[in-house]
User: What shape does this take?
Amino acid sequence: GKVNLANTIFREPLDLGGSTFCQEASFKGSTFEDGARFEGTSFLRYASFRDAEFLKEARFQEASFSAIANFGKALFDCPATFVSAKFSELCANFLEASFWRDADWTGARFSGTANFNLVSFDGSTSFWKSYFHVEASFQGAKFAGYASFQGALLSGNADFRATFFQEELNMEFALFRMDAIFLGTCISGTANF
Assistant: This one.
């Protein structure tokens, strides 16, 4: 059946690296006080981390999401690592999430819509060599630190409307195969395209 750990406070480190969740997994509203490790974890059904709080570390490198991955309004008060994570063709939802420290998406693959609308990135953020197969939407997102999309492949529409880049934006060698919309975008620092 469903794995329901919603609204749970994890006071000790949680290490579920390499695990497989065959059914829906809900960590909605949970607090991870001493770190959460989901390295290489497979989520075969809907995975919810909506409204979750990560206070020490959030490690999702090489995690695989075969259905909707919902991180809407999640708070990352720690470095967040999604290096080489794979998101299915359904949706990766990070709507209104907050990343207060560095966020690393190097080599992440988004096979479906990637929703980063209204996300706050306060530290350095890297989407270096990430792959967006369908739509990548960053409408109204705020990047307070260095933002890199260097070498990223955006096969679908890329929507950066009303996005704010406070420091350097690096899009060198990024490939846009469809429309790239920057209407109303503010870039305060250096921009490399």
About this structure: The chain has no helices and 35 strands. The chain has a mean pLDDT of 97. The two ends are 48 Å apart (CA to CA). The longest strand covers residues 91-93.
